């Protein structure tokens, strides 16, 4: 009976582990490296990631397990739009705040994890902000409020 030496077994096990790990369909749950800025929303100050490119807007907050309570994401568009948002591959419940060209809050809505139902705005918007669900209410943000959009989030780059 032939026996496998310990170094060969360890090497084979390490290779198998590397192959299995490399074939996993799980994606990283860490936040991508996007620019951030501070933004006053109601009575609270949030650190918001700026999604001002098509790629950043498409990925949004997908595949994240959590987000600090005082963080969010602002989506900046080159022109006003009425495109809906949905929660594909988004694990955390969110509020979405749609904001028009004059920085007026059009509506605040809640979105459920993994829900592919389109979440629409009642009118054209230039920015959308996502916060942890309940964050808008806690900060006192409501329809009709006028926000100050930080300079860094004023325009989309693409």
Question: Can you describe this structure?
Answer:
It is a single chain. The chain has about 160 residues and is of the alpha+beta class. Helix content is about 20%, strand content about 30%. The chain is built from three helices and six strands, in the order H-E-E-H-E-E-E-E-H. The chain has a six-stranded mixed β-sheet. A hairpin with a 2-residue loop joins strand 1 and strand 2 (about 45-50). The protein is globular and about 30 Å long.
Q: How would you describe this structure in keywords?
A:
158 residues; alpha+beta; 18% helix; globular; disordered N terminus
Q: What is the compact description of this entry?
A:
This protein is α+β, with helices and mostly antiparallel strands and about 160 residues long. The chain has helices at about 5-20, 55-60, 135-140; strands spanning about 35-40, 45-50, 70-80, 95-100, 105-110, 125-130.
Low-confidence stretches: 1-5, 9-30
| Radius of gyration computed on alpha carbons | 21 Å
Q: What structural class should be given to the helix and strand makeup?
A: alpha+beta
Q: Let me know the number of strands.
A: 6
Major sheet size, sense and barrel closure: 6 strands, mixed
The residue-averaged pLDDT reads 86
Strand order of the largest sheet: 1-2-3-6-4-5
Count up the helices. Answer: 3
Query: How large a portion of the residues is in β-strands, by DSSP E?
Result: 25-35%
Order of helices and strands: HEEHEEEEH
Percentage of residues in helical conformation: 10-25%
* Distance linking N and C termini: 66 Å
How does the overall form come out from the CA principal axes?
globular
């Amino acid at each position: 009976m032939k026996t496998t030496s310990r170094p060969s077994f360890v090497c084979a096990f390490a290779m198998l582990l590397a192959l299995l790990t490399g074939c996993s369909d799980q994606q990283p749950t860490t936040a991508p490296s996007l620019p951030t800025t501070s933004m006053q929303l109601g009575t609270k100050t949030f650190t918001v990631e700026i999604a001002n490119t098509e790629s950043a807007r498409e990925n949004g907050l997908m595949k994240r397990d959590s987000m600090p309570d005082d963080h969010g994401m602002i989506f900046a568009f080159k022109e006003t739009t009425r495109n809906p948002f949905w929660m594909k591959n988004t694990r955390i419940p969110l509020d979405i705040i749609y904001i028009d060209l004059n920085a007026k809050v059009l509506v605040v809505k809640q979105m459920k994890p993994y829900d592919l139902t389109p979440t629409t705005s009642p009118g054209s918007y230039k920015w959308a902000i996502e916060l942890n669900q309940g964050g808008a209410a806690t900060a006192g943000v409501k329809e009709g409020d006028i926000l100050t959009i930080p300079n860094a989030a004023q325009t989309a780059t693409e």
